[in-house]
Amino acid sequence: MLTDLSQSAPTVTAHDIRVSQGFMANEASEGMVRPEYSEKDKSRARQWFKKAETLREQRNYDYAIESYTSGLGFWMDAIDEGILPLWSLAIQRQQAGGKKPGMMESMKKSTTGKDVKQATLNSLALLAKDPTSATYVDAVLKNAARGGYLDLIRWAAERALESLKREKKTNAARFKAYRETLVAAGQMAESFEEPAYAVSFLEFAAQSLDFLVARNPSEMSLKDLQREISGKLTIAKGKYSGSGDFRDSLQDADKQRVLHDAERLKQGEAGQADLLLRLKTEFEENPTVPKHINAYVDTLIKTEKSKAENEAIRVLEEVAANLKNYNFKLKADDVRLRQLARRTSRLRIKAKESGSDEDRQQVRLAQMEELQAQLGIFAERVAKYPTDLRIKAKYGEALFRSKQYDEAIPILQAAQNDPRARIRCQLLIGQSFHKTGNPAQAAEVLAEALEEYEREDDTACSLLYSLGIAQTEAGDVSGAKTSFGKLLRIDYNYANGDARKRLDELKQST
Q1: This prediction's pTM
Q2: Rounded CA gap, 226 and 202, in Å?
Q3: Which of 236, 253, 360, 408 could, after both became Cys, cross-link 399 (CB 3.0–4.6 A)?
Q4: Is 120 within 8 Å of 152 (Cβ atoms)?
């Protein structure tokens, strides 16, 4: 039986409402001990995560969310196995049109109760149903800090900062609460003797101030705060630079953060740093001149380092908003997509080398996150440039890969009018019709594509293989035998011999 996350939920008071607007930064009490999880706890959590994965495959999204949060109740800091899949599920549910929590559900799942674990679980459940909510992401961070869930704090800090940056109007109160929460969390991490986390939390606080200063360069009080946080960060790094596990454990959300306290820089890197400093200065002096914007951003991107790329994304998004020029937003999203693709590729290589189920799961999660990003970015671009067929082709393929076949078909049908993408779109249209239970229509589309396509390459093989399967299911045995026969003349072992096997079965059935 699934855990009821709403049980014993206290009545929402005016105090609750006021608190929900901030992070309650100073609630981390002295003398706290970092939560520990036994192997039994982790085993029980994994049982719930496995159940959640099954429910997700069945598109039973709400029960999947409840299963994930039930598992997290045993292992709150299960970022890779619980939080990341839950977040991916939240995006998938949102894309599928899932409803946001209503008033009654929000009241039942209190995020401000005295039971910190339950408040954290409730916050995660509500955020999963409304992943764009500032209130819910703030609540996750607040409660993670209250509970001493260090890994969850780090994950939520990144999500909350993204939320803060997306707001059209800077919310000074949210930024202040965010900053104070992370400073307090850093102190708590130090008391836990976890130096890497203390540095990480202060870095997020510093990034939030960097963002504010960039938007309000004449605000001296912000610069004073910036210097104060930078000082704390320098002290934290210096204090723990000799810690043996410092370098091993300091990671960003995707565990690839560049270490800020490297012992020395190579000469080439030092030269690049000087160049970046000069270009940054020129950009700050000419923040609306495309030549200086692009020179600074392009140099950041060429480093292929996460921190520099993230800075490029931040600059591009700010410039896009300030100049109302969507081209800079396009460039920022392209950088983000390359980051995700690089991460997926890296994890795929690791999984291939290790062969472990855990590494393969990480690949699946990375692919899912990359696909969800593509869906959001390409949907926005189609809305912005509705006549650009190249963008529609990319969006249609992303919809197809996310198994949204009914949505993919009309997008791909429009995109096929681009001669460069026509055959690829027709292949995906045919496969989409087949996936939606219309093999006869699929066969017709694929046959038309083959009439136009005169090469004998991988594309031809994909068309013939898909056509043969569709014809078989449509009852056109003769046509299927012809298609598979043509395919075998190009590649006898196509699909690891499956095409040959299908042809043999057709011959035996007649």
Answers
A1: 0.49
A2: 11
A3: 408
A4: yes
